[in-house]
Structure formats: C-alpha cells, structure tokens
Design goal:
Blueprint (H helix, E strand, L loop, with lengths): L1 H51 L6 H10 L3 H90 L6 H28 L1
C-alpha cells in the first residue's frame, strides 16, 4: 500500500512537471505565432498601401508598373498572397495548438484529481490496516502471555497428575484397594443403618 501511494505521488508530480513544461512550450509557441501573424499583417498592409496608391508614389514607380505587365508586380502579388496564407495557416495552427494544450491540461487535471482521490483512499485504508495490525499484535501478545501462564501452571501440575512415579500396574492395584476399602466402609455404614 505504501509503495502504491509513493507511485501515485510520483505520477502526480510527473504530471505537474509535464503541465509546467507544456505551458512553457505553449507560451513560447504563442509568442512566435503572434509575431508571425503580426509580421504577415504588416507586410500585407505595406504591400496594399504601396499598390493601392494610398500614399504618394514615386512617379518612376507608376511608369514601372505600366511597363512591367505582370512581371515584378505579379511576383509581388504572389508574395502578398503568401503572407496572407502564412497569416491564415499560423492562426489555424495557433488555434489547434491552443485546443490541444487546453485538452492536455484538462486531462492532466482530471488524472491528478483521480490520483489525489486514490492517494486519500489508500492512505485511509493503510491507516485502518495499521490500526488493525496494532490491535492484533496486542491481542497476540496477550494470548501469548496467557499461553505461557497456562504452560507454567501445567508444568506445576504435571508431576502430581501425570508423572507420579508409579507404574500403571501400581496405580491399578492402588485403585482396586481404594475401591475395596470404600466397599467395606459402605457395608459398615449399611450395617449401622440396619442396626438402628
């Protein structure tokens, strides 16, 4: 029981460490994703601002656009769409990572709670068993003392009851003599009763 409790405590500690590590990784990933999204948005905004003419443009750039006919400008538009895709993919990855992190934390919390409950239950059971064992040891000690006292008393009685030093034949002869004496005493007593 004690080993099981120690194992549960170790597992609970490992879960806490895993949660801390997952939180550190998630925080770092969140920062990176936020920076990537910010950079992608800034790049798209800069490109849109330059391409839509919202800011004064260099006259040579206007002439370049007219002559380019899809070359460099087309490539810049592809780059702009790449930044938009990067932003969308990063947002989707961030949402998925956050969901997975939250599920891991929830599962870990449930597991830790279950382990806490198991530890509490096993600790109580262990305490009950310790108490029962203590009581049984006390009962055993008391019974052993009673047995020792009975064995001592038996050893004192043994010579007078079992080992009288007479052979079996001598004891049988002595008993027969006692029986004969008792019969004679009975006849005497019966004779007195008749005389009265």
């Amino acid at each position: 029981m004690t080993k099981e409790i120690a194992t549960l405590l170790d597992e609970q500690s490992a879960l806490t460490k895993a949660q801390k590590k997952a939180t550190d990784i998630r925080d770092e990933e969140k920062k990176r994703n936020a920076q990537t999204i910010k950079d992608a948005k800034a790049a798209q905004a800069a490109f849109m601002q330059q391409n839509t003419g919202q800011t004064p443009q260099d006259p040579s750039l206007v002439q370049f656009r007219a002559k380019d006919a899809g070359g460099v400008i087309g490539m810049l538009e592809v780059i702009q769409s790449d930044f938009a895709r990067l932003e969308a993919e990063t947002k989707a990855a961030e949402e998925q990572s956050q969901k997975e992190y939250e599920q891991f934390m929830l599962d870990s919390d449930v597991d830790k709670t279950q382990k806490s409950s198991d530890i509490e239950h096993k600790t109580k059971l262990s305490q009950d068993q310790q108490k029962s064992m203590t009581e049984k040891k006390a009962d055993l000690e008391g019974t052993q003392k009673e047995l020792a006292a009975a064995l001592d008393y038996y050893e004192k009685l043994k010579p007078s009851c079992v080992d009288s030093g007479e052979s079996y034949e001598d004891r049988v002869k002595r008993r027969e003599e006692e029986i004969q004496s008792l019969k004679e005493a009975l006849q005497i007593l019966q004779g007195e009763d008749i005389a009265r």
